[in-house]
Specification:
It contains no helices and 45 strands. The protein is an all-beta fold. Among the domains are: about 120 residues, no CATH class; about 110 residues, no CATH class. The chain has a 22-stranded mixed sheet, with no helix packed on it. The protein has a 21-stranded mixed sheet, with no helix packed on it. It is rod-shaped, with a radius of gyration of 31 Å.
């Protein structure tokens, strides 16, 4: 059953040892056995391996161990063995949509084979192989090795009672396998078994670490659940969907090698997105979230609730979109590559403050407070009674629907009241252009006639 591998071969499954010795599970299917007694779907070999064989139907197989015996149940029938005679477990579901569970404190190899199977390991080291179909693999406790096989497979670790590290990749260093509580999703890269992937990884309610040590052309989804989780900076997979879930999560600085477009979802909590390459979408979720150094990224940020900041950036920040509730969005980055960032409040009464560069700011629905930054900004109040203020650049201000107040800044601004009874203020002693739009609009301007132009339906000019 066990075989020592030489240095050039890949290590397929972890087993504890005082010294880092490389072992591998022989995953070839054992010879199927037909027993005369229909209740004897399980037997123990002379070397202590408990063999359990399913059928072509959908089987429910469970193995448990008491102080005196090991019990195997399948579809309502059961068989017992002396506890001392069983050293390890091998379960083959064969065909059908099987539920295969190791409830015993035995090291196990569980094969789903054909069908959409659910495999669950025990408290010790398990090797779970889904085979064909869309399988769910739950290693439970211990350091486990998972092989997805054909189909869209899920590694489900919500049942664990503590945090764990998930390392995605193939293995060539024995020492890595000796770490306690480490889950490894396997791929035999040497033989290019491109279908043997875990496509979805479900974390625990604790502080999990997700990492990878190799490049892949696959799409992988990480679902972290609760806890303060960390998505390591070396995740270099073709496409990543990483969901931090609840907790204060941190997303590392190296995704996709500058060529891929991960989707990063912070979820509830105060999350940090520390990026170095090119994510496609960031969703902050509820909490105080921040996007930190972006060196060469084109980023879309959505769902930044309550408070969000974009700090120390020197890339091309593309879009920040708030939630339907009240948002506070502060753009504090100092340098951007060519391109105009978009800050969008969405619904709710939002406060959005631009940064030193040029931005397009849209309050969306609600009574919003918008303020431009140091560059030539375009600010749109949207629906609601908004306050829209320029700053030092040559800005364009649009009130939108509602009773809006537009305040020009130090630059040569253009202000458009749009629909509603608006107030337009231009007292910066620069040549501003004011358009009233629909409604009974008012304007207050400088007392020098050469610094103002009035257009549209402005009913009254205030001192």
């Amino acid at each position: 059953m066990w075989q020592r591998r030489n240095q050039q071969n890949r290590l397929l499954t972890p087993f504890s040892s005082r010294k880092p010795i490389a072992f591998a599970v022989l995953l070839e299917r054992l010879e199927r056995r037909v027993f005369m007694d229909s209740s004897s779907f399980a037997q123990v070999t002379p070397t202590g391996t408990l063999l359990v064989n399913g059928t072509a139907a959908a089987n429910v197989i469970a193995v448990s161990r008491s102080r005196t015996q090991v019990t195997v149940s399948m579809d309502g029938a059961s068989v017992q063995f002396n506890r001392n005679s069983v050293k390890r477990l091998y379960v083959d579901g064969w065909a059908g949509d099987d539920l295969l569970t190791n409830n015993a404190d035995l090291r196990s190899t569980i094969l789903g084979n054909d069908g959409n199977d659910a495999l669950r390991g025990g408290p010790l080291e398990d090797s779970l192989q889904g085979g064909n179909g869309n399988d769910t693999l739950d290693g439970s406790e211990g350091s486990d090795a998972l092989l997805g096989g054909d189909g869209t497979d899920t590694a489900e670790y919500g049942s664990r009672n503590g945090p764990f590290e998930f390392k995605f990749g193939w293995f060539y260093r024995a020492r890595e396998m000796m770490l306690p509580g480490v889950l490894h999703a396997l791929r035999d890269h040497e033989h290019d078994v491109s279908d043997d992937f875990i496509e979805v990884i479900g974390g625990t309610e604790f502080d999990d670490l997700f990492t990878s040590d190799w490049n892949s052309n696959e799409t992988v989804t990480f679902l972290a659940r609760g806890g303060n989780d960390r998505f390591d900076k070396t995740l270099d997979i073709q496409r990543i969907v990483a969901d931090g879930g609840r907790g204060d999560d941190q997303f590392g600085s190296h995704y996709g090698g500058g060529q891929r477009s991960p989707t990063l979802i912070g979820g509830a909590g105060n999350d940090i997105f520390d990026l170095n390459y090119e994510p496609g979408l960031i969703s902050g979720g509820p909490g105080i979230d921040s996007v930190q150094p972006i060196y060469s990224a084109v980023v879309t940020v959505v769902d930044m609730n309550r408070y969000s900041s974009v700090e120390n950036a020197s890339g091309n920040l593309q879009t920040v979109i708030g939630t339907d509730g009240p948002n506070l969005i502060l753009q504090t980055a100092e340098r951007f590559q060519p391109g105009v960032p978009r800050l969008i409040g969405n619904g709710g009464n939002d406060i959005i403050v631009g940064g030193p560069g040029a931005e397009a700011i849209d309050g969306g629905s609600g009574d919003d407070l918008l303020q431009g930054g140091g560059g030539p900004d375009t600010l749109r109040g949207g629906d609601g009674d908004d306050i829209v203020a320029g700053n030092s650049g040559n800005d364009k201000l649009y009130g939108g629907l509602g009773k809006d107040t537009l305040v020009g800044g130090a630059g040569k601004d253009r202000m458009y009241g749009d629909a509603g009874d608006d107030l337009l203020i231009a007292r910066d002693r620069k040549r501003d252009t004011l358009y009233g739009g629909d409604g009974r609009d008012q304007a207050t301007v400088d007392d020098r006639p050469d610094v103002k132009d009035l257009w549209g339906e402005i009913e009254s000019l205030l001192a």
